[in-house]
Every structure is written in C-alpha cells, then in structure tokens.
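Case study: Phosphopantetheine adenylyltransferase.
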Amino acid sequence: MKIMVGGTFDPLHDGHRLLIRRAFDLATPEGTVIIGLTSDSFANRKSHPIHSYADRYRDLVSFIKSLEPETTWEIEELHDQYGSTLDADFDALVVSEETFPVGKNINQKRRERGKPCVEIHMIRCVLAEDGRWISSTRIWRGEIDTHGRLIQQQPQKEGSSDDMRRDVG
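Here is what the predicted structure looks like once written out:
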C-alpha cells in the first residue's frame, strides 16, 4: 500500500511518532510511505515558534531511521495543507483526531477532480499525564515534554518580582 501522512512535526512528540509508525504499519514492507513536512512559510502560520524546515527534516529522518523500516519512504515539502494528496495515486491517509476534517476535505476535493477517494485511518491523539492531548503548542508553552510528562513549574523565590507585585496589589 502507498500511505500518506503529513504535518509540521515540531517538536516531534509521541503523538507524531504514533502517527508515523501507523503509516509504516499500514504500508507493510512492500509499500511506500510519503511524509509531507510543512515548508517554513506554511509552518510559520502557527501561534508558536517553529524550527527551520532543515532542522525538522533532520529530526524526522532521524526518527524514521530509528524505526529501521523495510518500507520505502520519502519526505515531500508541503506548501499547503493538501500537498500532493489531491492528485497523487495512493491508498490511504493517516490522520489524527485533530486533522481528521482535513482528511475528509481531501477526499471531497479528490472526488471533485474525478480521483478515487482514499481510506482514512484516524489515530487517537496521545494523552499527556494530565489526560489532555499532547500538542506542540503545549510543549512550546512549557506545560509538557515531548512524551507528555508534565513539566514542574519552578517555584518563585521569595522576594522575586512576582511576589512583590502580589504584595503591592
């Protein structure tokens, strides 16, 4: 099977890892996995800072190689949310709960172009220790790490500016 999956993957977290593993599982050794990685210009629409395409590409390749896949794979640069999914010949798309609507939209647009719909395989979002989704935004905010472990907030030292503001107010 030829499988497609895409994202910004920054920082690469356990939810992303599950998504990518699922794509390789579906493809089987005889198949192909195409991973769309958002371009710098497309990724910069996010509400938090994004590492460069080159850095994200390097991290993605490192993770894929750690899987030691027998499956053929490639990474394509995404300049929009669809990439080559609207015209490419492939069998299935792997999405998360969060991106499932995009998968449905891809099939709608494929129908409009006279292309066959593809299977959509949705994985559940991976939960952090607090029961909420692991997300890049939460990681960037310093709430959790890439494995969903809660990051302990450093207690304020007595006499810090925060303490003074509370005392004055």
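For the exam, be able to explain this: The helical segments are 14-27, 40-43, 53-67, 100-112, 136-140, 161-168.
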